[in-house]
Design brief:
Catalytic activity: an anthocyanidin + UDP-alpha-D-glucose + H(+) = an anthocyanidin 3-O-beta-D-glucoside + UDP
Enzyme class: transferase
Protein name: Glycosyltransferase
Strand order of the largest sheet: 3-2-1-4-5-8-9
Shape: globular
Distance between the termini: 5 Å
Family: Belongs to the UDP-glycosyltransferase family.
Structural class: alpha/beta
Keywords: Glycosyltransferase, Transferase
Number of strands: 15
Strand content: 5-15%
Largest sheet: 7 strands, parallel
Length: 459
């Protein structure tokens, strides 16, 4: 059928855009034309990213935008923008894009790859008679949890709205992460409206994924064997990392990366630096941010801290505190607003990663053999923490006190424990070898990907 034309539709937040952009680039290498859809807000952030230009994807991947229904970038936070785009505006705009594109016989869309969390895109593809595939940028365990919703209701663990009947810990199967019912992905989003919306989407998406034989996942068999055993129709093709292709950092970042941190890292001793980053959405309130900084100071070790100015440094008292903090730690600490994370984690100087445990951060750390200190905030991050600490045993959790704070002493003590206990580094390196074998030629993830490419190219 010539060169297939694939429409890629991500959930419109950075943590979902990055792995789908990695997948798009992998497909483009096999001669597949890509149209990558973003909301207008995200498109403006993404289109000028220098990494996209460096990757020279302009002739292979076309970036397009659709209306997100907002009057300005100041209309609500990122989660609010995503929710509005997904539920009110995006479906109609994507359908219009398909119809315009398919007016040309030479440019017709032959396949739609949609983020699994927006099942309406799969429904739309079926309506238009277009072949389709779903992609999950999170752990397979999250999908298995979603598929288990009817059983959880039947067993009385949650009610029809997803609310736990009581707080309890469950294990969906042996060797899967232990899950706290209060921290089910839809139960720890900060408000009841978001809980109802996400739970409803997950129930709907369980039906939508049945519309395609391809449910791809940014994971690997060796990371989650029990989850894949429970749901063998989920096919891992990960980890999808820039380092697996041409090297360098990921594409799809919304903010400019401060590469001076790489030069600073290259001046530090091997396995000495604490890398601290909380992703694109999570943030710490001012007093907790100060505890973090003082904990890093007390640890008396070099650290690289990512603190976006619009997330952690905008508070007036924080601004003054940060300047004093910088003076006290001097060159032992480096603070940047955004970092080239995959390149950072690939540096030999990094000894551990203090992380919010987003799935991208988790697999990037695992793929580089870096132990983790876990500070989950919401959504699937609690599942990922359980994998890290309880299943893979390549990290430690940071515990909160009676005031729901992670204290400076807790931070200092856990840093010392993870850097001074050699078993964490040894297990992390062993897991790295297993996982990276999956994406090598002949590996399970690599073969799943090649099978998917063959399917796309079928007439």
């Amino acid at each position: 059928m010539g060169n297939p034309h694939v429409l890629v539709v991500p959930y419109p937040v950075q943590g979902h855009v990055i792995p789908l952009m990695e997948l798009a680039q992998c497909l483009a290498k096999y001669g597949i034309r890509i149209t990558f859809v973003n909301s207008e807000y995200n498109h403006e952030l993404l289109k000028n990213e220098s990494a996209l230009q460096a990757a020279n994807i302009g002739d292979r991947i076309r970036l397009v935008s659709i209306s997100d229904g907002l009057q300005s970038m100041e209309d609500g936070n990122q989660a609010g923008r995503a929710s509005g785009s997904i539920l009110r505006v995006m479906p109609g705009k994507v359908e219009e894009l398909i119809e315009r594109t398919n007016e040309s016989d030479s440019d017709k869309i032959s396949c739609i790859i949609a983020d699994q969390s927006i099942g309406w895109a799969l429904e739309l593809a079926e309506k238009k008679g277009i072949r389709r595939a779903a992609f999950c940028p999170a752990a397979a365990a999250l999908l298995v949890l979603g598929f288990s919703i009817p059983k959880l209701i039947e067993d009385g663990i949650i009610d029809e709205n997803g609310t736990p009947t009581k707080r309890q810990k469950i294990e969906l199967s042996a060797s899967m992460p232990l899950m706290d019912s209060a921290n089910f992905v839809w139960n720890c989003l900060g408000n009841m409206e978001a809980q109802k919306t996400i739970f409803g989407l997950m129930v709907r998406n369980n039906k939508s994924t049945k519309l395609t034989k391809w449910l791809l996942c940014n994971s690997a068999y060796d990371l989650e064997p029990s989850a894949f055993h429970m749901a063998p129709h989920i096919l891992p093709i990960g980890p999808l990392l820039a380092s697996n292709k041409l090297g360098g950092d990921s594409t799809g970042n919304f903010w400019a990366k401060d590469t001076t941190c790489l030069e600073w890292l290259d001046q530090q001793a091997p396995r000495s630096v604490i890398y601290v980053a909380f992703g694109s959405i999570a943030s710490l309130e001012p007093s907790q941010f100060k505890e973090l900084c003082v904990g890093l100071e007390l640890a008396s070790r070099p650290f690289l801290l990512v603190a976006r100015s619009d997330r952690m440094l905008t508070d007036g008292t924080n601004g003054e505190f940060v300047e004093e903090f910088k003076d006290r730690v001097g060159n032992r600490g480096k603070i940047v607003s955004w970092a080239p994370q995959q390149e950072v984690l690939g540096r030999s100087a990094v000894g551990c990663f203090l992380s919010h445990c987003g799935w991208n951060s988790t697999i990037e750390s695992v793929s580089n053999g870096v132990p983790l200190l876990c500070w989950p905030c919401f959504a699937d991050q609690f599942i990922n923490k359980s994998y890290i600490c309880d299943v893979w045993k390549v990290g430690l959790g940071l515990d909160k006190d009676e005031n729901d704070k992670v204290t400076r002493e807790e931070i200092k003590n856990k840093i010392e424990q993870i850097l001074e206990t050699k078993e964490f580094a040894a297990r992390a390196l062993d897991l790295k070898e297993k996982v990276m074998n999956c994406v090598k030629e002949g590996g399970s993830s690599h073969q799943n990907f090649l099978n998917f490419v063959d399917w796309i190219k079928m007439a």
